[in-house]
Structure formats: structure tokens, C-alpha cells
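Take a look at the protein record below and tell me what you see:
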Amino acid sequence: MGSALKQTMSNDKGNSNQPYILGHSDHELNRLRAQARFLEPDTRQFLLDAGVKRGMRILDVGSGAGEVAFLAAELVGEAGIVLGTDKAPAAVAAATQAAQNRGFSNIQFLEGNPAEMTFETRFDAVIGRYVLPFQDEPSAMLRGLAKHLDHSGLLIFHEPDWTCVRSFPPAPLYDRACRWISDTTQLSGQSWNFLEKAHTIFVGADLPAPTMRMHTFIAGDFNTREWLIAVGDIVESLLPAMVRLGVATVEEVNIWTFRDRLLQDVTSNRSVIVGRSEIGIWTTIGRDATQKTAASDCEHPDSASL
């Protein structure tokens, strides 16, 4: 696939000025791959419900290890194209290698913030998973992304929410781990409780009010294993931030035994656990809406511009 990148802007407005709290270590990229298997059914359903179909041109935001881009490439088929983007060189390199290993010919990955890039083509859809909570100005980012869309283009995001997590009867370590995660992301300024923000962020970007869907993991006893392993992986990635922010100590977490203790905590109490919620948010950008976002950027010079 030929390069779709025409020019990369030097400024970085609309994206987070803070370091990505989870980092891009080998452990984190491996965690993203494992997480993708858990999230794939939800992301697939959101993309299909929103209208992704064969032959589309897709821009993927914050590609990470590339798993959402690979799913999109499957959905659009060989007649479509997928351009993945990420600010982290390590993520772009890993995703590019993975695409080659899997034999994809309709995917390209580029380094940078797509809200600040110029492309040779417009896209039928801009998609992203677990992207908007990490932005200082998510509405500004959406305005920048909307300008890459063709008439009747789609903006589709899959984002997390932790407000519903709980266990019954209580599994104390599980509940504590979920508080560690929620408190750490909240204190970092990158809260994962996105449900209450989703509608406001889209409307604040002068976009049509979005359609929203929510899926939530719930299971009991031994059926919780896959989710509990995912919680353990998240805690490991967040541990440096937890310690730095005073949320938990290395000794308190004891990551070397944490996953086993977490499984024991839930199974010994015969607990039912409610996990993270998956929020699907999407809207269609008409010609009038696209022109409105462009006018809005002229009125607000701090927002993304091309």
C-alpha cells in the first residue's frame, strides 16, 4: 500500500502532554496483545454496528500493537485500506512487524498524532480503542480527526469505564486492585471512567450527538480467570505509577504472587465479579458537520489544525 502520509505537523496540540501512563515496554505491548483477544468481540461488534464494511478506508488512532488495525483490515477486506498511527516508535515498529508476519498487504503504520497530520486521501472511518481517556483535550483531538473524513464518514471509539466494577460476595483483593487501578488513573489525569464524559466530549467537538453502547464483563467463580489475569497484567503495567503516586507499595502488591492470590481470593469466596465496562461511541460526520469543525478550529487556535 502506498504511503498515505503527505505531511506531519510539528505541533502536538489536542493530544496528551503527559506520558502515557502504561508505557510501551515489551510487557505492555504483550499485555495489549493479550487484552486484544479479550476485547475483540466487543470492538468487532461496535465497528459493525457503526457501519464499517468491506472496501472502506480506515484511519486507526493510537494503534499500539496493531490489533484494532488488524481487525479493521479483516472487516474492510483487500479492497479496503487501513492506516494505523501511534506516537510511540516502539509501537509502530512492533505493529509493522506483526502486520508483515501476518501477511497483511492493506495496512501501513506511521508514527505521529493523526490529528496533526495531513494525508493524501480522506477516510471513510476514523477508529480507536482506549485512546480518548489519555488526551488532555479529547474534544480538540476529535475535531482534528474529523477533518480527515469523507462525506458521511464515521468516528468510532471503544473506550473503558471502571465505575461498575465490584464483587459479591466481596472478594477483598479484587475490590482493592480495582481501586488501585481507578485511583492511579484518576490521579494521573488519565481516568478510565469514561462513560460520564463520552457524550460531552463528542458534542464539545461540535460533532453530532453520538450513538453509545455498553458491554460489561460479569462472571462467577472459575469463569473469572481470563478477566482476573487481565487485571493482574494491568496492575503490573501500572505498578510504577501506583508507587510514584502513593496508591500502593511494591510490597503491598507483591506482583510475583499477585495473580495467584487474586484467583484464590475470588474462587475461595465463590464471588461473582463485575469487571470493566466497554463503551462503544460513534457518530456520522456529514458535510455540514465537517465544515463546522473546521470553522471551530479557526475560532479556537489552541485546537488541532492541519
In short: Confidence is low (pLDDT under 50) at residues 4-16, 293-306.
